[in-house]
Here is the input.
Amino acid sequence: MLDTIEWLETIGQNASLRHAPAEQLVSTLDQAGASAALKAAAMSGDKSKLSSEWGGGGDGGTGGGEGPFGVDHSSHSAWIDND
Amino acid sequence: MTNLPLAPNDTPRGSLACVGMGMTLGSHLTPLARSHIEQADVVFSALSDVAVEKWLARMNPDVRNLRPYYKEGKPRIETYQEWVDLMLTEVRAGKRVCAVFYGHPGIFAWSPHKAIEIARAEGFQAHMEPGISAEDCLYADLGIDPGSHGCQHFEASQLLFSERRIDPAGYLVLWQVAPLGNWSVGAFPKGPAYRQVLVDLLSQDYPLEHEIIIYRCATLPIEKASIRRAALRDLPHLQLGTEETVVLPPSQPVKPNLAIRARLAELDKLEQADISA
Ligand SMILES: C[S@@+](CC[C@H](N)C(=O)[O-])C[C@H]1O[C@@H](n2cnc3c(N)ncnc32)[C@H](O)[C@@H]1O
Here is the structure.
C-alpha cells in the first residue's frame, strides 16, 4: 500500500490522475486505502488539509513557500547591498 | 604503455551541482537532477512544501534543510550568505554536494549562482541543472507565449529602487511582490504602502483599471493553479501570498517601427536590383 508521499509522487507522474476530476481521484484513493487527510486534500484541492500528516508546524505544515519562513531566496536585498 | 599523468594530490575532489526540483511534486523533477540528488554525499534543500521535503528525503540519506536558517528579524541576505557558506564548507571538505531548490535553481535565486561562482573560483567543479520554474508553469497555465508580444520579468523591489524601462506593449511579470519592502523575516509589513508606490510607478504606463493577474502554480499534484484577476489600483490591498507572481498583460498594441521598415524595404530593393543586374 502506498503512503501519502508515494501517492503524491504517483499522482504527479500519472497523466490520468494528475488532471482527473476530484471525485474520480478520491474514489481511486479510497479504493487503494489512502489516508483520510490525502482524500480530503484531493477532494478540496487544498494542501493545508495534509498538514496533520506532517504534524503541523509554524507554517501550518504546508511548507516552505508560505508563512514567515517561506523559501524566498532571490537577490532582492542582495542587489541593493552589492550595487 | 604510457602512464597517464596522475592528478596532483592537492586537486580538490569536492563538487557542487545546483539542481531544480521543478514546481509540482512528482511532475517536474528531471532524471538528471534526480541522479545528482541520489549520487551526492550531501544534499541541501530549499523547497516549497513539507511534502516535497519528505519526498526528497527518500532520495538521499543525508538531506539538510536550508529553511531553518531563516530567523525572525534576521535580514534575508544574511541567511542566503549562510546557505552559500554551508554548501562551500562541504565542497571544500571534498564532498559531492547537491543543492536542490524548488523550480529552477537559477531563476530569482541568489545563493545557487553565488555558490557556483565561488566554487569555480576555488577550482572545484560546479554547475547548475535547470528545472521547471514558476515562469514555465505561468506560460502554460495562463496561455501566454512570451514570443507573441515580448515579456519582461522584474523582481518587484528592483523595479522600485532602480530606473527601468517598462514596455507596456509586452507582458510584464513581477516576482516577489508579497515580500516587497520586508528585507528581514517577520519585519513589520510595509507591503501595502510599498505596493501603493509600485502602483503609482506602474500607472505611468498602465491605466489604473488595467487588469492584473495574480498567479500561483500547483506545488502539490492535488492542487490546481490559482489565477485571480484584479484591477491594478487594487494591488496594494490584495491578500498576496509569497508564492504568487503578478502578471500585467499588454496595455498597448505593438506599434510598427516605420523608420526601420522603410530602411529594410530599401535593403530589399537593393537586393532585388542586384539580382536583376
Ligand atoms: C525566490 S523566487 C524563486 C523562483 C523559483 N526559483 C522558480 O524557478 O520559479 C520566489 C518567487 O517565485 C514566484 N513563485 C514561487 N512559487 C510560485 C508558485 N507556486 N506559483 C507562482 N509563482 C511562484 C513568486 O513570484 C515568488 O515571489
